[in-house]
Design a protein that fits this description.
By secondary structure, this protein is mostly helical. The protein has three domains: about 110 residues, no CATH class; about 50 residues, no CATH class; about 60 residues, Homeodomain-like (Arc Repressor Mutant, subunit A). The protein contains twelve helices and two strands; from the N terminus they run E-E-H-H-H-H-H-H-H-H-H-H-H-H. A two-stranded antiparallel ribbon has the order 1-2. A hairpin with an 8-residue loop joins strand 1 and strand 2. Helix 3 runs antiparallel to helix 4 and helix 9 runs antiparallel to helix 10. The radius of gyration is 22 Å and the shape is globular.
């Protein structure tokens, strides 16, 4: 579930659901019936990139065992086996296996979703567009003109612009701006670095160009946005 709201367990639509907190307190159910192993995990996410990812997720994802890749089924079985153990490095193993299972589940779900899958995810299935997205996210301050991105994708400018918009639902320039603004938002909310430093980090020639671009997108200056973000984070510690 992507909302973080408490959830419940139920074995059949006609059976009363049990809140997960109560199920955990009760422990193993030894009553008659088919057995099921419930594995629970959670992520705590914040920041602009986290918000963008959560908006792309459905409230719940269901991947039946019959639809699982063989590697996914093996990863689930390994997680179920290791969760019973208590050995050095246990938590690190469980954390990484949770990551693996989450990625498998989302990949399976979005493969079925087709056009309903997020545009950036669909772009990852196309080598040329994937190269562009990977480089833009790795180096948002780069000179990401349409010609530069088209060359990286191995396409003509016109073909690249058209295909990029068709797949992601956004123009190349707007997508780059979105990535830069997300990085800037996180820097403003999480640090005390200057606007000039943020501008250089996300690809603007100076703080004035950055401030103008930020105001166009948010309707407020970076300084006012930072103040509002700090007010919403009462436990913020400058760094």
């Amino acid at each position: 579930m992507s909302s973080g709201a408490p959830y419940a367990l139920v074995s059949d639509p006609d059976v009363t659901a049990e809140p997960i907190a109560e199920a955990r307190l009760r422990g193993t159910d030894t009553r008659q019936g088919d057995a099921a192993l419930i594995l629970c995990g959670a992520y705590i996410l914040d920041g602009s990139f986290a918000a963008s990812l959560l908006r792309a997720l459905p409230r719940a994802v269901v991947v039946p065992a019959t639809d699982q890749e063989s590697a996914h089924a093996a990863a689930v079985a390994l997680l179920a086996d290791l969760i019973k153990q208590d050995a050095p490095g246990q938590q690190v193993l469980l954390d990484r296996l949770l990551d693996v299972n989450l990625i498998f589940a989302l990949r399976s779900w979005w493969a079925q979703a087709g056009e309903a899958a997020p545009g950036w995810y669909r772009a990852l299935s196309q080598p040329g567009l994937r190269r562009v997205l990977e480089h833009v996210h790795a180096e948002p301050a780069g000179e990401w003109t349409v010609p530069a991105m088209a060359d990286l994708a191995g396409m003509s400018r016109a073909a690249f612009s058209l295909r990029f918009r068709e797949v992601t639902g956004d123009s190349p320039g707007s997508y780059v701006t979105g990535v830069r603004m997300q990085r800037a938002e996180d820097a403003l909310a999480r640090s005390d670095v200057t606007l000039a430093q943020i501008a250089a980090k996300v690809g603007y020639r100076n703080e004035y160009a950055f401030s103008a671009a930020f105001r166009r997108r948010h309707g407020v200056s970076p300084g006012k946005w930072r103040a509002a973000a700090r007010t919403a984070q009462p436990d913020y510690v400058p760094h």
